[in-house]
Specification:
This protein has helices at residues 12-23, 35-46, 62-75, 101-127, 150-169, 186-191, 202-215, 224-227; strands at 3-7, 27-32, 52-56, 80-83, 133-137, 174-179, 220-223. With 231 residues, the chain is of the alpha/beta class. It has one domain (3-227): Rossmann fold. A seven-stranded parallel sheet has the order 3-2-1-4-5-6-7, with helices on both faces. Helix 4 (101-127) links the parallel strand 4 and strand 5. The radius of gyration is 16 Å and the shape is globular. The chain starts with a strand and ends with a helix.
Length: 231
């Protein structure tokens, strides 16, 4: 069975993608900071009959990243790495003139530095997969200028560039930066409390990710909702 590591896998998009892969027979290593929530999610995933290893911890911790890759190796290897864990840098989001610098550093550390650290840890297994794939979760805020989204958007723009360079340096892998679009998640609620708009569920955009995995287009940046409209 193919094996995936998904960070931020206890809820939101991470959990939705994990459930879809489990339904397709993938074995999974899922990560999140809150052990109790993560284990409940993992139990639900095991109902699909696949092997699921839950590893609680923070992706900014090198030891945690090593444990994720070791768990994947214990399942037989690693075919897909999904860097989904993210922090905003300020909750709720604020204008750049009020952006806490410590918050920006935290966003860069989690959203960019930890993502690269996990890729570095996982590369030997990904290279040996034969179909090694890296997905980093981007944002429209990485490419568009939205008021109050400057700090978070800057971290995601850096992540996009990291993925683009990785694709050039590792031509044997598929490396996709995927913008999932607006979703009804805890992260968005923390970013813009009481927004009031009805937003798509994470489950509604997962078919776009599955289409990428099925068709394996060239490395690059993709928008998950747009993938649903392609023939």
């Amino acid at each position: 069975m193919p094996v995936a590591v998904i960070t931020g896998g206890s809820k939101g998009l991470g959990r939705a993608l994990a459930a879809a892969l489990a339904g397709r027979g993938w074995d999974l290593v899922v990560s999140a900071r809150t052990a109790e929530v993560l284990e409940r999610s993992a139990e639900g995933l095991r109902g699909h009959g696949t092997r699921v290893v839950a590893v609680a911890g923070d992706v900014t911790d090198a030891g945690h990243r090593a444990a994720l890759v070791a768990a994947a190796e214990g399942l037989g290897g690693l075919d897909l790495l999904v860097s989904n864990a993210s922090v905003l840098g300020a909750e709720p989001l604020v204008r750049l003139d009020s952006q806490p610098l410590a918050g920006l550093r935290a966003a860069l550390e989690t959203n960019v530095v930890a993502a690269l650290g996990l890729v570095q840890e996982a590369l030997p297994l990904l290279r040996g997969s034969g179909a090694g794939t890296v997905i980093v979760i981007s944002s429209e805020a990485a490419a568009e200028a939205y008021e109050t989204w400057g700090g978070y958007g800057a971290s995601k723009a850096a992540l996009d560039q990291l993925a683009a360079v990785l694709a050039v340096e590792e031509p044997g892998l598929r490396v996709w930066a995927v913008d999932p679009g607006d979703m009804d998640t805890d992260l968005y609620e923390a970013a813009v409390p009481a927004d009031g708009e009805v937003r798509p569920t994470p489950e509604s955009v997962v078919p776009g990710f599955l289409r990428l995995l099925d068709r394996r287009p060239v490395s690059g940046r993709y928008a998950a909702p747009a993938l649903l409209d392609r023939v």
